[in-house]
């Protein structure tokens, strides 16, 4: 049986801000917001009144789904 020091602890949430999303996918900010509005991209999280970000795990899962869909249509 594992003791408390051997148990895994959840990783803290990581976030992507809009400039990171734009750079990662080489798209404009307006494209990202259009995808969100159309339900084609994860919704952002409001971290504070002036700060919006995307959960990194949601974005990575979306990217993996896009890759899988692309391979399935070949």
Lateral arrangement of strands in the main beta sheet: 1-3-2
Which regions are unreliable across 5 or more consecutive residues at pLDDT < 50?
none
Shape descriptor: globular
Mean pLDDT: 89
The total domain count is: 1
Strand content: 5-15%
Query: Secondary-structure element order, as H and E?
Result: EHHEEH
- Gyration radius, rounded: 16 Å
Cα end-to-end separation: 48 Å
How many strands?
Answer: 3
Annotation field: number of helices: 3
Largest sheet: 3 strands, antiparallel
CATH level 1 name: Mainly Alpha
Second rung of CATH, namely the architecture: Orthogonal Bundle
Helix content: 40-55%
Produce the secondary structure layout.
Blueprint: E1 15-16, H1 18-25, H2 29-37, E2 45-48, E3 51-55, H3 56-72
Antiparallel strand pairs: 1-3, 2-3
Give the gist of this structure.
By secondary structure, the chain is of the alpha+beta class.
Structure description:
It is built from three helices and three strands, in the order βααββα. The chain has helices at 18-25, 29-37, 56-72, and strands at 15-16, 45-48, 51-55. It has a three-stranded antiparallel sheet. It has a single domain (13-72), classed as Arc Repressor Mutant, subunit A. The radius of gyration is 16 Å and the shape is globular.
